[in-house]
Amino acid sequence: MIIRLKAYARFRDLLDREMEVDLPEGSTVFDLMKKLASRSVDLDNQIFDSSGRVREDVNIMVNGRHSESLNGPDTALAAGDEVALFSAVVGG
Amino acid sequence: MDSLEESGRYERQIRLFGVEGQKSLKKATALVVGAGGLGSSVTAYLAVAGMGRIIVVDGDVVEISNLNRQILHGARDVGRSKAVSAAETVLGLNPEVDVEAVALFADEDNLADLVSEADLVIDALDNFPARYLLNRAAIEIGVPLFHGAISGFNGQATTVIPEKTPCLRCIFPRSPPKETSPALGATCGVIGSIQASEAIKYLAGKGELLGGRLLIWDGLRAECDEIPIERNPRCGDCGVEEF
């Protein structure tokens, strides 16, 4: 199945702004992140922490909803889903 | 001729939203929480635009390292209350503004009372725990919240209209890690100006607000993106569904 991925903020340094990712049926947000992380060590470091969890400063939106308010990394993806990947800023 | 027209101070913007729009600003109270980089930019533009009343909240004092971006404060203000310094600068910019300095850090004990005095709230904070408190207070009291945040050349902004748009917790259900962000005055200017522009549009009834969209500013690329955001029906702050 094809997922549409949009990268923002620091992920724009490592990914195209908009791309299509082919994933097996039944894949989750975590599977998508693993696939992206396999592209480079830099991406792996930007997405996962040393314990293999998605970093707390990484925000993943699935069709406009934050994955943490869905089912976290286990959120199931479906063909045509639009996933946004970005890091929040906090300063004022 | 209306007194707001007579002075000529607002002549160039009355062309945008009329005397009625200007009166809407004059009648309104803005609560600006944080008098740092974003707070400086937002407060300055709200003041010169003719906001009737501005309440500036900040419990911090001015440090020399603030002065690269916090344009409400000058070298002579180092060691002084940011809220007081901000209020003095506002009066210098526009003595018609009724400005109040609240030299306190925003917390659970004071935010509800402060927000209940305001027609709109500006999030110019530097951490998410305090932002969540402000978000909740704005939703409970039913006033719009204009969010901004920065780090280095990057920034983000969105507008929260209670019961209509996603709130800050819908967008960020968990707090990003606390950090001491690198900060550039010009980035604070970009994002703070967007927040001020949103607030003025809201009061004047003009344009399309940044609700349901998170604006992402990438200063190094000089590019602006937006991420469409949906409300979370089970949001802990604004959700309408039972858990």
From TrEMBL, chain A:
Task: Supply the InterPro entries for this chain.
Answer: Beta-grasp_dom_sf, MoaD_arc-typ, Mopterin_synth/thiamin_S_b, SAMP1_3, Sulfur_Carrier/Prot_Modifier, ThiS/MoaD-like
Which domain of life does the protein's organism represent?
Archaea
From the Swiss-Prot or TrEMBL record, give the protein name: Molybdopterin synthase subunit MoaD
Please report the organism this UniProt entry assigns to the protein: Methanothrix harundinacea
The uppermost taxa in this organism's lineage are: Archaea, Methanobacteriati, Methanobacteriota, Stenosarchaea group, Methanomicrobia
Automatic annotation (TrEMBL), chain B:
Signal peptide residues on this chain, from the entry's feature table: none
GO cellular component terms, alphabetically, are:
cytoplasm
Q: Which CDD domains match?
A: ThiF_MoeB_HesA_family (cd00757)
Q: Any idea where the THIF-type NAD/FAD binding fold domain is?
A: 10-236
Residues passing through the membrane, by range? none
Question: One Pfam family name from the record?
Answer: ThiF
Domain of life from the UniProt record = Archaea
A GO term for molecular function: ubiquitin-like modifier activating enzyme activity
Would you identify the family this protein belongs to, as annotated? Belongs to the HesA/MoeB/ThiF family.
Q: Which PANTHER family match?
A: ADENYLYLTRANSFERASE AND SULFURTRANSFERASE MOCS3, UBIQUITIN-ACTIVATING ENZYME E1
Question: Can you name this protein?
Answer: MoeB/thiF molybdopterin or thiamine synthase protein
Species per Swiss-Prot/TrEMBL record = Methanothrix harundinacea
